[in-house]
Amino acid sequence: MQFDDDEKQKLIEEVHAVVTVRDAKHTNFVEFRNFKIIYRRYAGLYFCICVDVNDNNLAYLEAIHNFVLNEYFHNVCELDLVFNFYKVYTVVDEMFLAGEIRETSQTKVLKQLLMLQSLE
Amino acid sequence: MVVPSLKLQDLIEEIRGARTQAQEREVIQKECAHIRASFRDGDPMLRHRQLAKLLYVHMLGYPAHFGQMECLKLIASSRFTDKRVGYLGAMLLLDERHDAHLLITNSIKNDLSQGIQPVQGLALCTLSTMGSAEMCRDLATEVEKLLLQPSPYVRKKAILTAVHMIRKVPELSNVFLPPCAKLLHERHHGILLGTITLITELCERSPEALRHFRKVVPQLAQILRTLVTTGCSTEHSISGVSDPFLQVQILRLLRILGRNHEESSETMNDLLAQTNTDTSRNAGNAVLFETVLTIMDIRSAAGLRVLAVNILGRFLHNSDRNIRYVALTSLLRLVQSDHSAVQRHRPTVVECLQETDASLSRRALELSLALVNGSNVRAMMQELQAFLESCPPDLRADCASGILLAAERFAPTKRWHIDTILHVLTTAGTHVRDDAVANLTRLIGGAQELHAYSVRRLYNALAEDISQQPLVQVAAWCIGEYGDLLLQGNFEEIEPLQVEEEEVLALLEKVLQSHMSLPATRGYALTALMKLSTRLRGDNNRIRQVVSIYGSCLDVELQQRAVEYDTLFRKYDHMRAAILEKMPLVEQGDPQVDEEVQESKAAAQLSEAAPAPTESQASQLLDLLDLLDGASGNAQHPPLLDPSPGGALVHLLDLPCAPPPPAPIPDLKVFEREGVQLNLSFIRPSENPALLLIIVTATNSSESDVTHFICQAAVPKSLQLQLQAPSGNTVPARGGLPITQLFRILNPNKAPLRLKLRLTYNHFGQSVQEIFEVNNLPVESWQ
């Protein structure tokens, strides 16, 4: 799906508005346009995945957790994510591709990332 | 002068250090100018740093399109760092709507065929993120080659890129179908995962692929089994479940393959029954849920479906809200097909109504409504009504209409039904659908034994609260219809409450005057007041006053009604009682409408003798009363004391005014003179015990015609009589067509019936007049 730059901004704002008003008493699934957003909150950060309506919610919840637990980010905090945003993209590309889950093994992903880093 | 460019980290710090938006914009603009300059003639070695800064700025939302060409240059360079930033820039800044993206096709091609693995990986990544249809077509062969390369790293990416390509260009499925079978034999989890996704995508797009891959169902089952049984590699297991993602994907593929296909479903049956995954962690639950979804979709054995429902039931007890949500959604899908299995979990579902999360309680509400059936309707209604009182406003309308629907389908007794509707109206009156009022009035009208009960309860409810419009409308209608029952005050099941006439009138006036009442409600109240003028025994001054006040009301409809009612009081007082009688039972649907239309047309055709204003007013009244009750049949005819010849009136009397009574009362011959006979036949309609219909038939067996035949009648004061126009006033000789005439007698107090008749006619050239009282009236005619 293609979006203009300003459409992208609007999307970001919309998702933000929908997700941040929910507290712990709500489920982790929200309906958004004609998709679902599955999100998980870690302290001050929300990790959101937008999926089709008939995908397995619980599985993607696991995927988020898997992503976050990655050991490449040793004790990561928000600032680290900001300063190394391109590295975040790399991790995303290792684990998800073409809109599907690609690699789930933490060790393998870690190995790849270290290798890539060595090439710099 | 070359200004040393900022490192990325420094730029980020500077931007974050800006305290206001304006300051931030300033910093960024300055930096963008630098970047632009350096793109033009800066050091190629530092280009990647510039682009990285530009990407950061882009992420914040500022325009960065001038960096697109730089991406191309960086991708084409041979250094890895350059390529990496270049590809990232391509993914973020380029998309298929800009023509520039085609320019990187060549670079990608080169990288795919000759680059080192990481580079190939990057290229594939970019392709799968923003690859357009043309790019995909061009590069399909390259990707296919990579599918079979020995290195798993690249293969994984290649497979998923293939998925993306198929989504963009469905014809490429042919290209990617053959390698799949081979790929399935791999052990590598990442490859398997990708392959399964690829196969899923292929099967969703084309039915032949579906058939082709049905053959691999046993193989898939084998893979799944190995996953589950052997406690395999730790690197893929998450909280004790071995590679849940792979399991979920396989199950999904099995679902697609098994849908509507008996054979595959059977092979899967015992596999699906082995659900030994640990449910204490989310990963296990995810797999379990996918299993349930698969069971639901394929043609599975009945026992398996029950197992699925039980699993969902277990989910409902889980403390994790997410799992309960997922369970409720799936149960909703299952409730149509496996109703009895889902019923077992009804108590848990009802508990979920109390959730604070609106999406959960909404799903619980839908599911509860779907679970209501004949045997549990009372218990469920109690729960649902309790919920209605406390639920958030957006759910109220759905809840109210759901309750009313369920009550209609499963009500065990009429009284319970009326109670339920009453309760809904008092708690959520403003949210009910519009036809709820009509339904309720029809229901009450039909439940004759409950008239007193209903009117008493409605009166109480109305006395407490006049703001809920549907409730007020129904209550006003009932009080109008059954006001006399209200005043009797001796219904044994509720506490006897002595209601005074004045109180009733005061209440209706309050409704009329309240600013909360809609115009329609006021109309109901006004008509109710009018009806009470005949039902109550006191004098009608108060009512007349109110009615005349509203004669100058600003609302046109109210004004019209008030004026007509006023006229009714002043000029046509004798007709008032008959017009404002109780309504007969309303049929469901509109079979009576046609009859009514004919009747009112016929009434309108009534001719010369009747004064014109009467009939227009009368037919207007008919319209009014029709308006009031929707499709009700109000078979009142404007009475004419001067009968007029009208052949068109014959069909009036052909139409039954009331259904025939169960036990017919014998006819009575009351008069005979020179061949002219008068017969009375009696009909007591069952739904209105106070009503008596007498059909007077005049026959002539003599040799001479009877002309100018007029029959008039009188009854005691406690009864009300209404004469309808006779079929004619000539009876031809020798058994010619008799004259029939209908008398309507209202006898609410069951007073003994006495009837005095006066006949005038011409016979044998002489005018005859007879006055006599009818003796021997059968007792059943008035008891």
SSE inventory with pairings:
The complex is a heterodimer of chains A (120) and B (783).
Chain A: H1 5-20, E1 29-32, E2 35-42, E3 45-51, H2 57-68, H3 78-83, H4 85-95, E4 96-97, E5 100-101, H5 106-118
Chain B: H1 8-17, H2 21-41, H3 47-60, H4 68-76, H5 80-93, H6 104-114, H7 117-130, H8 133-147, H9 152-168, H10 173-183, H11 189-205, H12 207-214, H13 217-229, E1 237-238, E2 241-242, H14 244-258, H15 262-273, H16 282-297, H17 302-317, H18 321-334, H19 339-343, H20 346-351, H21 358-371, H22 377-390, H23 393-410, H24 414-428, H25 435-446, H26 451-464, H27 469-488, H28 501-513, H29 519-535, H30 541-549, H31 556-570, H32 573-579, H33 591-605, H34 612-629, H35 650-654, E3 665-673, E4 676-683, E5 691-700, E6 706-714, E7 720-723, E8 739-746, E9 755-763, E10 766-774
Antiparallel strand pairs in B: 1-2, 3-4, 4-5, 5-8, 6-9, 7-8, 9-10
Helix pairs in contact in B: 1-2, 2-3, 3-5, 4-5, 5-7, 6-7, 6-8, 7-9, 8-9, 9-11, 10-11, 11-12, 11-14, 13-14, 13-15, 14-16, 16-17, 16-18, 17-18, 18-21, 21-23, 22-23, 22-24, 23-24, 25-27, 26-27, 27-28, 27-29, 28-29, 29-31, 30-31
Summary tags:
heterodimer; A: Beta-Lactamase; three-stranded antiparallel β-sheet; 5 strands; B: 783 residues; Immunoglobulin-like; five-stranded antiparallel β-sheet; 10 strands; GAE_dom (chain B)
Fold and architecture overview:
Chain A has 120 residues and is α+β, with helices and mostly antiparallel strands. Chain A has two domains: 55 residues, Beta-Lactamase, CATH 3.30.450; 50 residues, no CATH class. Chain A contains five helices and five strands; from the N terminus they run H-E-E-E-H-H-H-E-E-H. Chain A has a three-stranded antiparallel beta sheet with strand order 1-2-3, sandwiched between helices. The model of chain A has no long low-confidence stretch (mean pLDDT 79). With 783 residues, chain B is an alpha+beta fold. Chain B has 35 helices and ten strands. In chain B, the strands form three sheets. Chain B has a five-stranded antiparallel beta sheet with strand order 3-4-5-8-7. In chain B, strands 6-9-10 form a three-stranded antiparallel beta sheet, with no helix packed on it. Chain B has a two-stranded antiparallel ribbon with strand order 1-2. Chain B is elongated. Chain B starts with 7 loop residues before the first helix and ends in a 9-residue tail after the last strand. About 9% of the residues of chain B have low confidence. The chains are: A alpha+beta (120), B alpha+beta (783). The interface between A and B is large, with 42 and 64 residues.
